[in-house]
Design goal:
Blueprint: E1 2-4, E2 7-9, H1 28-39, H2 43-50, H3 56-66, E3 68-69, H4 76-88, E4 96-100, E5 107-110, E6 116-120, H5 121-126, H6 129-145, H7 147-163, H8 168-200, H9 203-215, H10 224-236, H11 240-250, H12 258-269, H13 272-278, H14 293-310, H15 314-338, H16 349-354, H17 357-361
Parallel strand pairs: 4-6
Antiparallel strand pairs: 1-2, 3-4, 5-6
Helix pairs in contact: 1-8, 1-14, 4-6, 6-8, 6-9, 7-8, 8-12, 9-12, 10-12, 14-15
Length: 364
């Protein structure tokens, strides 16, 4: 990063989004849940009270004692990326960031009071600068949305479920909540991918990073178009048995499958919503308090309905066909008993009432 006066600015020319609300990039399902939670009276108080029960303080001490804290003298290139991402998304307080020794490439944002970003050494070694910039933007997006709170709770509940596994009903109740949180969290990952793109502003780098998460550091052996074709094949391939297996494979995961993430991000990067944000037309944080919960849920429901309607997955297609067939049947029954539509083609309701053949067929 370079300095201009007293202000830190990005090292290369990228668009900045002053006052941007996380609603600008959140997936509809993620956004509706967050808007509803933010509207709950006393929500923050409840979760701060929970912080005494959750292992957050223990985690902070663990990272402080057994990881490397990113700063101007340790991993300075990551420190510059972090400040850069916060500058672009206008996040006033820069979160603490740690690098943790781990052979698995991973990154996370946790914390109730203040978010902490953690990246593993394997991830740092795997990605180039622009790919890593998208990852750092991804995690800053989590921080801006408040996802770190729910991620911390999910970690706590998952650990609790393991401890009470011997209690049948207790385990079922907790796992039901964990399953619901995981479904929300998968959608929040799609939101954070979008935030990463807004920070990096290089869709090719975002695609490369996701490919590396799937296939390792072998870019010369991989191809973005072929990788996206995998996502398309995954969605539309197989029969109903495969659709069920997809659901079962997904349930224990906190993240969507990598090819699916790539396809979703590519689709959003080509959307009007993304272009509007890049043009400076986006919701502001100062407007968050006025956001309608009903409208947010309506957008979420419309998104899911559209997903079912346009999906190539065999099960979703069947659901769509059944829903469409039920609607058609309902329409035909309604017309049969109300006489609606019988006057088309120049006929009239009088013809129908008289029992004439012309009125019944609309050819009178």
């Amino acid at each position: 990063m370079t300095e201009t006066g007293f202000e830190k600015v990005p090292a290369r020319d990228r668009r900045r989004f002053p006052g941007i609300s996380s609603r600008a990039y959140e997936h509809p399902a993620d956004r509706s849940a967050l808007v509803a939670l933010r509207k709950l009276s006393g929500f923050d108080t409840v979760f701060k009270a929970l912080s005494g029960l959750l292992p957050e303080r223990s985690l902070r001490l663990l990272f402080l004692s057994d990881s490397v804290r990113v700063g101007e003298t340790q991993f300075p290139h990551l420190h510059a990326m972090l400040r850069d991402a916060c500058y672009i998304l206008d996040l006033e307080k820069v979160p603490q960031m740690y690098v943790q020794q781990d052979p698995r490439p991973n990154a996370m944002c946790i914390g109730l009071d203040e978010p902490i970003i953690v990246v593993t050494t394997s991830l740092v070694e795997l990605l180039d600068e622009e790919e890593m910039r998208a990852v750092v933007g991804h995690e800053v997006g989590h921080a801006l949305s408040g996802h770190s709170v729910y991620r911390t709770i999910l970690l706590f509940l998952t650990n609790l479920a393991l401890k009470v596994a011997w209690i049948p009903l207790g385990n079922v109740a907790i796992m039901t909540l964990v399953t619901a949180l995981r479904e929300w969290f998968r959608k929040s990952e799609l939101s954070a991918d979008r935030a990463g793109l807004l920070v990096g502003q290089d869709v090719t780098a975002s695609m490369r990073g996701l490919m590396k998460l799937a296939g390792g550091n072998h870019l010369h052996e991989m191809n973005v178009d072929a990788f996206l074709e995998q996502a398309d094949e995954y969605e539309k391939g197989g029969d109903l048995r495969d659709s069920v297996l997809k659901i079962l494979n997904m349930l224990p995961r906190t993240h969507p499958f990598t090819t699916v993430r790539a396809a979703e991000l590519k689709k959003w990067s080509q959307s009007r919503d993304y272009q509007r944000v890049m043009d400076g037309h986006y919701p502001r944080r100062e407007e968050d308090k006025d956001t309608s919960v009903t409208d947010s849920f309506r957008e979420s429901a419309a998104h899911y309905a559209d997903s079912v309607r346009t999906s190539k997955d065999p099960l979703f297609k069947l659901v769509g066909d059944i829903a469409g067939g039920a609607a058609d049947m309902g329409g035909r029954l309604r017309d049969k008993f109300t006489g609606a539509g019988a006057g088309s083609g120049g006929g009239s309701g009088t013809d129908t009432a008289s029992g004439g053949k012309g009125g019944a067929t609309g050819q009178g």
